[in-house]
User: Fold this.
Amino acid sequence: MTSNIGTVARAMTGFGNSAIGSAFGSWLGKIAGGFLVLLVLTAIFAPWITPFDYAAQNLMNSNAAPGWPHLLGTDQFGRDVLSRVIYGARTSLSVSATAIAISISVGMTLGAAAGYFGGFFERAVMTVVDLTWSFPDILIALIFVATIGPGLTSTTFAIAIAYLAQFTRLTRAQIVRLKRETFIEATINLGAKPRHILQYHLLPNAIAPVIVVGMLAIGDGIVLEATLGFFGLGAQPPTPSWGAMMSSGTAQLFLSPWVIIFPGVVVAVTVVAVNLFGDELIRALNIRDRIRGA
Amino acid sequence: MLLRYIFYRSLMLIPVSISISVVIFLIVHLLPGDPIDNLIRVGSSPDDRLALITKYGLDQPLFVQYYRWISAMFQGDFGEAIVLRRPVADLISQNLPYSLTLGGLAFAFSSIVGIILGTISATTRSAIVKQFMRGFILLGSTVPGFWLALLMILFFAVQLQWFPVSGAKGWDSLVLPVLTIGFGGVALVARVTRVALLDVRREDFVTLLHAKGLSMRTILVRHLMPHAMLPVVTILALRIGWILGGAVTVEFVFGRPGLGLLLIRALGQRDYPVVQGCLLMLALAVMLGTLIGDVAQAAMDPRIREEKT
Amino acid sequence: MLEVRDLEVAFGPVAPLSGVSFSLAKGEKLGIVGESGSGKSLTAMSVMGLLPLSGGRITGGSIVFDGQELTTLAESAYRKLRGRRLGLITQNPMTSLDPLQKIGPQVDAVAVLHLSMNASEARTRTVEILGTLRIPEPALICDRYPHQMSGGMKQRIVIAMALAADPDVLVADEPTTALDVTVQAQIIRLLDDLVKERDLALVLITHDMSVVAQTCDKVVVMYAGRAIEYGPVEAIFDAPQHPYTQALINCIPKGLSTDEHLSGISGTVPTVSNYPKGCAFHPRCDRAKNICTSERPAFITYGNNAAACHFAGDDR
Amino acid sequence: MRYVTKTKFLSGTALIAAGFLSCAAMAQDVSIAFSSDELGATSYNPVTSSNLNSATGLIYDRLVEQDADQSYHPHLATSWVESADGMSWTFQLKDGVTFHDGTAFNAQSVADWIPDFADTENAYLVAAIASVEVIDDLTVKFVMSRPEPNLLYNLASSFMGIPGSASYDSLGEDFGVTGAVGTGPFKLESFSIGLETVLVRNDDYAWASDLSENQGTAHLERVTFREIPDQSTAFLELKTGGVDLLLGVPTDFLQILKAESNVSVIQMPGTGIHYMPINVTAPPFDNIKVREATGLAVNQEAIVASIYNGVGAPAHNFLIGSLPEAQVDPALNVNYGPDKAKTLLDEAGWMMGEGKVRMKDGVPLTVKLFTQNGTEFTSLTQVVQAQLAEIGMEAEITVFDSSTIRDEYKNNRHQLAVRGYDWNNSDILDWFFSGKRLGYPNVSMWNDVEGQRLNDVAMEDSKNSDERIANFKAYHEYVLSQHLFVPIYQPTKNIAYNSDRVSVPKIVRGTRFRSQTIVDIKVTE
Assistant:
């Protein structure tokens, strides 16, 4: 595939900056970053923050509207929606982050090997990568979950596989670019072993864009997890995840909309925050062009 | 030159297709469960079950089953659906038009609107427009499709009653699904267009175009757009697979038949021939998409044309 | 023909260029010389009216071309000058042409736009100009793409574009930097000939003092966004007033003698955001005194040249 | 109609047009959304298809019909006689019945039809019929290879709607897809797989069964059946007038539907049970005391009241209430009894320790609870999980798709599961508890000598229906005594319709909402 995919990949990973938007952007970036930190802290300290047990049912008080003591209301089992949204942050964030971490490590290995060794190996890897990249991610995830069974583990792997192509491609592009740089050529000419070059010279230099793109992909991962949840896969009850909550019976949308609307809003806000913050990172690290190079 | 390029590029697809068919076959047959459970009903005996397994050749070793499938495939025979009891080719050809209509319209919608919005956002001087576009693009690429679909129905179909809630009859049933899929697509295309335009604008030759005294509009239309279209074409070509199979959630919510829904339903029933057929179709569409993308690139960019022939 | 006075350029809050003045008549060749980042290219862009492309604007001074004030000129009127009366040659021929278009149309466009020619007239003219630039088989070249040509050839195409509408002033922004040494000389010679043949005014921007010495009539030496010395080439080479000019001249290898000491300039060019107070050159200057760190030197005319140094005119 | 509603928003001239549209709408034209469990049919061939929907019953008539009380009523057969030894059945057929293609329905039609079942997945329905003899034009005799007290039940099934032989043979594979010929009150006009089926009135129809009030042609001229996979979308279609009838409304929607002024809901007694099978081979459930305790932990009444809003009935044994075999010794019924459950667990050695979970030999009482995706079961499973926690049993839920969960059962990886069945015949006991079908469908993995003996007697040695009832009841009671499952809930079948537009008989006859009721529906708007 051609280098234009680079622009595509870059475009997909963040919105370009503009001179005027710059000041406004960094202000937004601060808010987005602050929100994300808060979210992660909430997820970590969920047991101490939640007002109720996320799994405690109270069938006599089901579908209660937001109010006191259930600030965001209760679901059809009388469980506290706020507590579930907070615990849901745990599930959704950890599933997505773990998935992307796996995706990055495998993708970087594949991409680095492909970019470094080139030839038939590169062509084979990239053909597969391009194909999976063009395959709808929801189908990849659905087939994968059908194969190894539902649950958080398989959802995690499904998301990891769905986004593998992106990181393989990005790493490869970084490596190909770096390989042309003089200091690497020098190292190669000095007779260093491929493993050494990859490990000490190429990968450290390639990692920043990959990490940032990975961060942005966490947002996509959250959405994919939610969509899997819509098909009843993903987190197993009573474990809350945003996706599972949003899909907990579309009947809820009419009966007790807060059960579905609040997780939806949290997903939207989180993903937007992830994107804004990612943009700031790209700007701060000045790696826009390197992401473009993919 | 271009023809030569297409020829060689197509040759590469043959080994890829064969490997893909093996992968698809293995994935489908490694799925736990089997289609026979979906055929037998209360009252049939365990012997009836065995008879069915034999009838559909599911007791044969995997490679025998693969050989049968692939050799039939070479004669254009997609096989017979086990649970759905129809020729797979029939099922696909019944569902494909729906996918193509929905996908094609969503594709056209997102390309045209996306390119226009992307161009506006890259060229506007107004900070408000810029921030608005930024917000739109951000939202468009983050909202889950099923969520958007439900909201669309609630607002446009239930509140305003402008369009039917679901179904696939008449043009008006297409509007909401196309908008739902298109929303994300528009955001993506606008994003790519915008970034590509901003990238090209920084190239040296653009300075020289200005130095020639060309107007901004001439430069945009004659020089910047063709460049910006290279990545846009790439992403659009890559989306062909998404068009055919990626609309599952939208098909589900809007009650439209389609390849994605057929595939997911067959997957649930382990209707092997249907799943295989659909996946192969999608894979072919994806390969065709990358081929079209590459060819379009080559047609547009003389550098690629030479590099690859 | 062209007169620049106290030009000042700003990008948002930063002002990377100020206090640049020079004048140029028909048939004259002016060199603007300095290290990268000294503001040479900004000067060129200011003259071409292309600063807004990179987000900059002119905040002070004037540029008068043929009696017309350019700094306040409307964009539409400026567009009629660009390509028609002001020609630009850019630094990197590799990236100066639209890679998706054939050579012919790219050159034709100028004549079509400014000389109201139709396509075939413009093509005839293109072929003719390419021929005068010593490009072999000009008619065939028109049907080729930029990537199919060598760097030197591409730079000739760029020159052809600049010349297509018979301009009065040619601004050449480091036209040879990206080229092989042998080609460099050819291009410089070509420019030199063109000035003679067509009675052009040439602004040649370069970091190479020797090119200036060979080619130009006048020279502006720039450092850290300011002109620091200006005058006829002979005067400046004979008696450079600014220590920086002196240093640049010292950098030119004089011959092939093996024991010759080639001096460099110690230190680095400051970036826009941290221009030193006073004379921007003082941290690298071996003659710097207290006054140099606090007061910016004014332009002092000394003989035929003028220099911005507190010690201009002093004997060394 | 949606378009009528839409025009209301438009101005005066459009209102006149709307008037015309309303007249057109008065032309007895309705659209019906299938329930989610009957989606995805690819053919209206009743003989070979494994998945038929409600529209099938409108195209084809059956020889006999079954009512909600499980009694049998004549339809195309006016009467029947079973020989004393059960080895033959003779049916008198209705006179004057014609197929949609104009050919007459007679004894030969039946004789041509039964052999078509050979080698299909539906062959078991006629497996006991050795041959079909045409006695005269309107008399046909089934010669049996063994007594089959269940024959009438089979004949009343959708799969035994009678197709016209001529068309069946000429269309071949395409029968039921491009065309379909039966004797039913409606003819197939068009069938778009996965989208909709359009039926038009059979104007010759004059042979409805006595389950219908209307004995002539249907009131409706045109019925459009639509497939809408998402339940909430289907609900919105009903609300906005896109469909007039919703077959199969999930219980969670009832509350919302009742709030809609223009929507009426019919609740029919269901034909199935939601229950929790217990894998008797997986410890700790190999101990009958633990199994019994599990059953005592489930509060059926609370479940019906809370998650089903009082709709439907609690289930206390394995069969639907209307079957005579369900009337077992009350002592054997499974009821809520948490105290006894705790005692039983104590006796089994599972003691309450410090935490909320019982322990035995340092092992916590943690079990796997499987279920299928789809809101119906996942909600129920979560409540069951909470109720099990009350007696100190920690259940971990896994939600599978229907194919994967069967694979788990077959590989004996399960302990508890929440599932349901839909079947209005006591032979369901054989299906789920026969030692021949361990894993799936026998999810309880129960293989017991006495159980199998009682099963064989009920399945094979029943000469007539009274004997069959007694045998199955005995088998049912024995199954209950072994605590192989926990009965939970008998759902109702809920049908919602737009009461502004259509009138539907208040009392629905038959085992489900089918042709016998649809011929009585009128457009009233």
Observations:
- Chains C and D do not touch (no CB pair under 8 Å).
- Residues 181-198 of chain C form the longest helix (18 residues).
- Chain C has a mean pLDDT of 83.
- Chain C has eleven helices and twelve strands.
